[in-house]
Specification:
It contains seven helices and no strands. The chain is mainly alpha-helical. The longest helix has about 70 residues, at about 30-95.
Length: about 200
């Protein structure tokens, strides 16, 4: 049995170990390099797979958050639409007539029969319609901010607000004519030229 070589210093032992490792490497370089390449390739593949998983998880979380936010916005928009419908129904109920057009016919009749108070009466109607229209416009803008213009909820609300805008324009038209003189109002009505008479098909 070969006798174990003795080294006088630590440096001699380290040098001998290094030479031994170099000798082993040169002898087995191909297999060592092949194993290193395989290990590197496997580690790289694992790292890329982990990165893909991480990105997929992040993407799924982002989609989930976006979905939850979308549902929340839809719910808020529907609540606002309910308020829009309620305010519109209350306005129609306050008219106390079968239709808005009939309401304006009655308004006209009251204006020409009670001329001294016609100015105050129609101004009050203007204020009512203007207040309701302003409140509905505000809710419509809130719905727009929540769900955008293509959402059915927004389109339903916009349709209602358009009706109130139209009726506000009608009452303002009557009011302007009253300011000029009740006789002018009567003439336009008889010719069917008041705005509400010409545009009733738009409601």
């Amino acid at each position: 049995m070969a006798r174990k070589k003795l080294y006088h210093t630590k440096e001699e032992r380290q040098l001998a170990d290094r030479q031994k490792r170099l000798k082993y490497y040169h002898k087995n370089a191909d297999s060592i390099n092949t194993k290193l390449r395989k290990d590197y390739s496997a580690a790289k593949s694992q790292r890329e797979m982990n990165e893909r998983k991480s990105k997929n998880k992040a993407g799924m979380r982002a989609k989930e958050v976006a979905c939850n936010q979308s549902r929340s916005r839809q719910a808020q928009a529907k609540s606002l639409l309910l308020l829009v419908n309620t305010q519109f129904d209350q306005l129609i109920e306050k008219m106390n007539e079968p239709s808005p057009v009939k309401y304006f016919d009655v308004l006209y009749a009251s204006l020409v029969s009670d001329h001294p108070s016609s100015h105050d009466s129609v101004q009050e109607q203007c204020n009512i319609f203007s207040t309701v229209c302003g409140a509905l416009e505000k809710r419509l803008n809130q719905i727009l901010d929540l769900v955008g213009p293509s959402c059915p909820v927004y389109k339903q609300a916009e349709k209602i607000v358009r009706k109130v805008r139209l009726m506000l324009a009608w009452v303002e038209d009557v009011y302007c004519e009253v300011l000029v003189g009740i006789e002018g109002l009567r003439k336009r009505y008889n010719r069917g030229k008041l705005q509400y008479q010409m545009e009733q098909g738009l409601l």
